[in-house]
From TrEMBL:
It holds the Pfam family NDK. It is found in: Cytoplasm. The gene is ndk. This is Nucleoside diphosphate kinase. Major role in the synthesis of nucleoside triphosphates other than ATP. The ATP gamma phosphate is transferred to the NDP beta phosphate via a ping-pong mechanism, using a phosphorylated active-site intermediate. Homotetramer. Its EC number is 2.7.4.6. PROSITE patterns: NDPK, NDPK_LIKE. Its main location: cytoplasm. It comes from Brachybacterium tyrofermentans. Residues 2-140 form the Nucleoside diphosphate kinase-like domain. The active site is at residue 120. The keyword Ribosomal protein does not apply. Belongs to the NDK family.
């Protein structure tokens, strides 16, 4: 079934010049890019996006990492794109992410305690609708 998902190319992806590589993987898989914008996230966007992680030990570092430079927000569309993009991304922890995945091939974690893993993808239809509303209110 056709779905939309919210993808973030996190600041480490932008800083390392990996936008093209990651977008190429999305497009060659066959997903369509419906919207794309680069900007530095506001504190409001990050606290809304990561509300479920508030209070966790890595939360302050997470917000600092995600606000440290420009990121690229993307709405991607396609059959089962929510699970499909998460397969492309690989496991959250880059050390455990399988080779062939974005994180497995490209991510390191040299700046713990925050896992810097290049990309975010919505984890459910509910999350996708909520997150698209945060980053692209005009699409809500
Ligand atoms: P993301 O999919 O954007 O959702 C929350 C982010 O927090 C996650 O990717 C990682 O960047 C980071 N994260 C998740 N779990 C941990 C953890 N256990 N320790 C450190 N960072 C984490």
């Amino acid at each position: 079934t056709a779905q939309r998902t919210l993808v973030l190319l996190k600041p480490d992806a932008v800083q390392r010049g990996l936008r093209g590589e990651i977008i190429r993987r999305l497009e060659t898989k066959g997903y369509e890019i419906v919207a794309l914008a680069q900007r530095t996230a506001t504190a409001e966007e990050l606290s809304a996006h990561y509300a479920e992680h508030e209070g966790k030990p890595f939360y302050p570092g997470l917000v600092e990492y995600m606000g440290a430079g420009p990121l690229v927000a993307i709405v991607a569309e396609g059959d089962s794109v929510i699970a499909g993009f998460r397969s492309l991304a690989g496991a959250t922890n880059p050390t455990e992410a399988a080779p062939g995945t974005i994180r497995g091939d490209l991510a390191r974690e040299w700046d713990l305690p925050v896992i810097q893993n290049l990309v975010h993808g919505s984890d459910s239809e509910e999350s996708a609708a909520r997150e698209i509303g945060i980053w692209f209110p005009e699409l809500g």
